[in-house]
Amino acid sequence: MLCGYQSPEEKIMLHLLYILAFTVLAFLAVGNLIRSLVTVGMESQRPQQFRANNRYASYPRSQAVPHPELLDEYGNIVNEPLLVMRSLTVQDAREQLDALYKSSPGGSDEGGELA
């Protein structure tokens, strides 16, 4: 049937079967999406104490362990900014990059500028 020539009725039935199958899959996907949204909405409305008792929590929220990068060498929490950025102009950044390039092993300025 699928390998040889098909009559127009068989082609129409095959198309209708495809449409029906993908319609069912679409309804299942949309139903799953709605069910997931309802579940997430209900989880967000629960008090904090119930969320801490789920199966993924390995320790209570009150005894949360900080990330190791936030601790100093003695295990105390670092209470200072870890990243300080200052704004640079394009010209300052270009000068710093040029200085880095010229100080690198193969970065002599013998060939002149590229741009």
Written account of the structure:
The chain is an all-alpha fold and 115 residues long. It is 49% helix and 0% strand. It contains 3 helices and no strands. The chain has helices at 8-45, 48-51, 90-103. The radius of gyration is 32 Å and the shape is flat. The model has no long low-confidence stretch (mean pLDDT 80).
Name the descriptors.
115 residues; flat
Annotate the secondary structure layout.
Layout (H helix, E strand, L loop, with lengths): L7 H38 L2 H4 L38 H14 L12
Care to give the gist of this entry?
This protein is an all-alpha fold and 115 residues long. The protein contains three helices and no strands.
The helix fraction, in percent, is 40-55%
Helix/strand structural class: mainly alpha
Mean pLDDT: 80
Question: How far apart are the termini?
Answer: 67 Å
**What is the H/E order?**
HHH
Rg, please?
A: 32 Å
